[in-house]
Each structure stands twice: as structure tokens, then as C-alpha cells.
Amino acid sequence: MLRRLLTLMSALCTVVVVAVLLPAATATGAAAAACVTPWSSAAVYTGGMTASYNGHNWYAKWWTQNERPGSSDVWRDEGTCGDGGGTTPPPSSGGFVVSETQFNQMFPSRNSFYTYAGLKAALSAYPGFATTGSDTVKKQEAAAFLANVSHETGGLVHIVEQNTANYPHYCDWGQSYGCPAGQAAYYGRGPIQLSWNFNYKAAGDALGINLLNDPYRVERDAAVAWKTGLWYWNTQNGPGTMTGHNAMVNGAGFGQTIRSINGSLECDGRNPAQVESRVSKYRQFTTLLGVPTGANLYC
């Protein structure tokens, strides 16, 4: 009788344990919500719209554009979605497609001013850079930008324009704001060699930095220098018909980035040696990153 009672009690305990464990197991196995359309830095969101980013769904409280979910109060986190993977974080959070080792291989003789940390710090200003499109396109854009930068600066050696005789030429007194830092203050600086008072004004306004009155900051602060280069790459057509960013993410090809930066002096047979120098560097960098060059390399 005692043995039967113990057996019955043992069976009851097993049922109780199973009853306690089942809800927890069910909760653990519950599927996350489906991810909605991924967030895009180019899209405009109004209140009530949603986007997925970094494994979460996000709800826009009001109008927003280019404000990354999680970086602004405009977005409300609606919880995890899908398998929790979501989109890749932007380069500023550590996911830049060019590693520091690769960067150092690209620029073995670079000036210590041009730090990898300075480049990483600048990426948040233009989160669409090297994060748009497929993994191949992202790496192609990074390679294209850095290849042009290498050409402009002699391999990230030169911080400022070397021909000092040009310095007084970059002041356009026709602009209402003139040249408050002095006529010879707006010479080329940084990775894209930003020059002219109107470019310092436009870049400073876009970045929230008073570069018109203090253009020398571009040669003092590595992050600011990189930001001016990214500003030009992402927002300016120059003598071309599109930005360098758009040329790479929309498949126009590396040749169009040359046209946007210095096409009036190099493209259409004006200076084929300079074009070849840029293309050669782009080929080198895409090989290092393990991606093809794509078509339309020349301008």
C-alpha cells in the first residue's frame, strides 16, 4: 500500500512539474513580430509610419528624415521583430565596411592627422554612406571614395593644398558674406581638398560648424576634415550631374565620381593620366575589399 502511494505521489509531482514548465517553454518559443519595411535614410516618415531597424520595429511619432531609429526621440521602439537580426548598424556604431587594418593597408604612408578614428567619427554625419545597397555596393562606394581621397591627397599625406600661389584665388568677393577669414584663407584642405569661400560656407552650414569664419578647423580636426569630404561626396555634383554617392549606389560607375570631383579638368580626354591614377587606385582598393569594380570606370 505504501509503495502504491509513493508511486501515485511521484506521478502527481511529475504532472505538477510539467504543468509549471509548459507555459515557460511556450513563451520562449513564441515567434517575434514580423519586421516591417526596413528604415531608409532617404525616406520621409510622418507620424504613425513604421520602419524596421537593427532587429526592432519602430514607430514614428512625427515627421522625420535621416534620423536613425534609436538615435532620436522621434522613434518609439515597438520591440524585436523577425529573428532579431534586422538591418546592419551604421558605420558609426562599429560596422564600417573598411576595417582599420584595411585602412592602414590602403594608406601605408599616411599623415598621422588622417586617423581611422577620425573617419569613423565623421560617418554619423552621413549614415547612408557605405551602408546603402548590397554588401558589394557598400564596399564599392567606400573604395571609390577612398580612391578619390587618395588621389587628392597623395595617399592621405597632404592636409592642405601644396601650391600656395593658388591660395588668394579661392575668395569670391561676389558672395554677400565675403571672406571674413581673409582672402587667402580658403585654400584646399582635407581629404577632398575643400576650397573656395562658398564651399566652406555651404559645408559649414550643412555640418553645423562655422567654417566660413574658421576654415583652419579643417586642418586642425581630423573628424571635421573627414566630414567635409563626406559632405562633398554625399551632397555635391560638382562639375558632374550626380553626387559620388549616387553614382556608386545607383550603378552609374566610378567614372562618374571622377566627373563630380574634377571632371572639368580631367574627363573627356583632358587629362587621361590623372583619370588613370584614380581608376588604378580604385581597382587596388576593391581588390583589397574583395569586390569587383563594376562597369564604367572612366569618364
List the helices and strands and how they pair.
Elements: H1 2-28, E1 44-45, E2 50-53, E3 56-60, E4 64-65, E5 75-80, H2 100-106, H3 116-122, H4 135-153, H5 197-207, H6 217-220, H7 222-235, H8 244-249, H9 254-266, H10 272-289
Antiparallel strand pairs: 1-4, 2-3, 3-5
Helix pairs in contact: 3-7, 4-10, 5-7, 9-10
If you had to describe this structure to a student in words, what would you say it looks like?
- By secondary structure, the protein is mostly helical.
- Among the domains are: 31-87, Seminal Fluid Protein  PDC-109 (Domain B), CATH 2.10.10.20; 138-289, Lysozyme, CATH 1.10.530.10.
- Helix content is 42%, strand content 6%.
- A three-stranded antiparallel sheet has the order 2-3-5, with no helix packed on it.
- Helix 3 (116-122) packs across helix 7 and helix 5 packs across helix 7.
- It is globular.
- It starts with a helix and ends in a 10-residue tail after the last helix.
- The model is unreliable at 1-30 and 84-93 (pLDDT under 50).
Rg (C-alpha, Å): 27 Å
The residue fraction in helices comes out at 40-55%
User: Structural class, please?
Assistant: mainly alpha
What average pLDDT do the residues reach? 84
Q: Spans with pLDDT under 50 lasting ≥5 residues?
A: 1-30, 84-93
- What is the H/E string? HEEEEEHHHHHHHHH
Q: What is the percentage of strand-forming residues? A: 5-15%
- The CATH architecture name of the domain at 138-289 reads Orthogonal Bundle
Main sheet specs: 3 strands, antiparallel
Please, how many helices?
10
Globally, the shape reads globular
Strand order of the largest sheet: 2-3-5
Cα(first) to Cα(last) distance is 96 Å
Oligomeric status: single chain
According to CATH, the fold-level topology of the domain at 138-289 is Lysozyme
The CATH class of the domain at 138-289 turns out to be Mainly Alpha
DSSP strand count: 5
